[in-house]
Amino acid sequence: MKALLATGLTIATLFSSPALAQDIEAEVDLFEMQFDGGDDAFVFDSTLAIGNGVDGVALKVEGGSEAGPDLDEIGAQLLYTRTIGARTTLLMGVRRDFLPGDDINYATVAVEHSVGDIVELESYFYLSEHGDLTATAQALVAAPLTQSLTFEPRFEVAWAAQDIVEEDIASGLTGISVSARLRQAIGPILNVYGGVIHERLVGDTRSIARAAGESWNISSFIIGAGMAF
Predict the structure, then answer these.
(1) What separation in angstroms does the CA of 201 have from each of 103, 136, 154?
(2) Which of 71-75, 103-107, 211-215 is the least confident region?
(3) How confident is the model at residue 19 (pLDDT cuts 50, 70, 90)?
(4) I need a labelling partner for 159 at 20 to 30 A (CA). Which of 1, 137, 139, 190 fits?
(5) pLDDT score for 86
(6) In angstroms, rounded to a whole number, what is the distance separating the alpha carbons of residues 91 and 109?
(7) For the residues 131-135, what does the mean pLDDT come to?
(8) For residue 21, what pLDDT is reported?
């Protein structure tokens, strides 16, 4: 983790030099508690991006845990970004998952695409150091209701190309997540939000969880905050 952050800070310093005329953007998209009446969870998702409108670098850090002071998982990605046209961005780089057991490294290839002014589509593909291929796809709508209030429904699916026994994952679609957040801006930087989320395992991955007596679907209430600057 320290190595990735140090690399990201070094790149940020180089890209932010006046000679390179780069823009720097930082965002904490999610910083939230999810309450389901039992297994409450904390989740965060943040991005630091440096670029000139065409080429850039992004450092993405996300993670979560059951409610408590310790994070169960942290994932960090360092990605080169290339804008193709006005609405599509290609991303390539590396990801490292910091887990309670052994950490795992991945190669990452992704595409982000805007549809109109309010819809964002993302597809991320990951090839692990063990040769396992997984992917996630997300559709995010940010529909303004007033000048400061935004309605944000999201839909995400996860997929695996093969069984990953050590992670209790079967090939095919592995999970879906549907959520809706109502986000209120408080000044130019800070926002707060509330909402609901439903997550469930699907296919043979669900069968593995049920056989082990583990929960395979969760519905939660959400409260959180975000920042962008």
Answers:
(1) 23, 13, 17
(2) 71-75
(3) very low
(4) 1
(5) 86
(6) 6
(7) 98
(8) 52
Please, which contacts does 105-108 make with residues 24 or more away whose CB atoms are closer than 8 Å? 105/129, 108/77, 108/79
Among 79, 15, 19, residue whose Cα is nearest residue 47: 79
- Residue entry with tokens 């049920």: 210
101 residue type, one letter: G
Give the DSSP letter of residue 195.
Answer: E
Q: What is the mean pLDDT of residues 209-218?
A: 90
Q: How far is CA 142 from CA 118, 182, 183, in A?
A: 5, 10, 9
What is the value of pTM for the model shown? Answer: 0.87
Distances (CA, A) of 53 to 20, 44, 79, 113: 12, 26, 15, 15
Integer Rg of the chain from CA = 18
The CATH number that applies at residue 97 is 2.40.160.40
Please give the helix or strand (H or E) that residue 8 lies within, else none. Answer: helix 2-15
22, 50 in Cβ contact below 8 A? Answer: yes
**Residues in the chain, how many?**
229
E strand or H helix at 166: none
Task: Work out the average pLDDT over 165-187.
Answer: 96
Helix (H) or strand (E) holding 215: none
Scanning the structure block, which residue is given the tokens 């509330």?
A: 194
How high is the pLDDT of residue 38?
72
Distance CA 137, CA 125 (A): 9
Count how many domains the chain has. 1
